[in-house]
């Protein structure tokens, strides 16, 4: 009986200590952000041609895309950085006002490439070259960084430092001593905004000016600190 009472008292004491440990905590969220200039770009390049028959439209689009791919190779873009992302063939209809059904008057064929340019200094020249050799659509431009791991790590470290500063501020304001770190969890993956640009390419050959700017990498952490005795 004495053994049972002793065990029961130990359990009650452990539960009380555990409850106090749970309540004597400071919980904070830290945010970290770093900026870096991009070192690569991904651009969507397309060709589109219309002809009377589907075969003629596809042939024209295919010839134009072959010229674009040759131009990309001449500009130093490697085959691994060139990927066909879309091939389309659609009829063109003529609608009447007298209730008759629309009739097919031609076909529009299109092909789109997704191209990575790993040397940003070459981007303007690459765009100039593909326009000159048959590309007539630019569907998007996205800047990026080849190796994001160091930037993501720096953002996390900044987030942890921010959380520590907040925890110290709260402890000082409450008149308590900040204790050990109980837990750290990441509140979300580091984010990299990717600015997009859309519009038609100009027909005139020119060295296209491109402003890369900077990319932001953000991280969030949740940190639980103990309040020291």
Largest sheet features = 4 strands, antiparallel
CATH-assigned fold name of the largest domain: Alpha-Beta Plaits
Task: Determine the fraction of residues in helical runs and give it as a percent range.
Answer: 25-40%
Average pLDDT works out at 83
Work out the number of β strands.
7
Strand content: 35-45%
CATH class of the largest domain: Alpha Beta
Structural class: alpha+beta
Strand order of the largest sheet: 3-4-2-5
The helix-strand sequence is: HEEHEEHEHEE
Number of helices: 4
- Overall morphology: elongated
Q: Which stretches are low in confidence, meaning pLDDT under 50 for 5 or more residues running?
A: 3-17, 193-206
Summed up, the domain count is 2
> Whole-Å distance between the termini?
35 Å
What is the level-2 CATH architecture name of the largest domain?
Answer: 2-Layer Sandwich
Please outline the helices and strands.
Layout: H1 2-23, E1 25-36, E2 40-51, H2 54-74, E3 82-94, E4 103-117, H3 123-132, E5 137-144, H4 149-174, E6 177-191, E7 215-228
Antiparallel strand pairs: 1-7, 2-4, 2-5, 3-4, 6-7
Helix pairs in contact: 2-3
Describe the fold and architecture.
The protein contains four helices and seven strands. By secondary structure, the protein is an alpha+beta fold. The protein is elongated.
Quickly describe the structure.
The protein has 229 residues and is of the alpha+beta class.
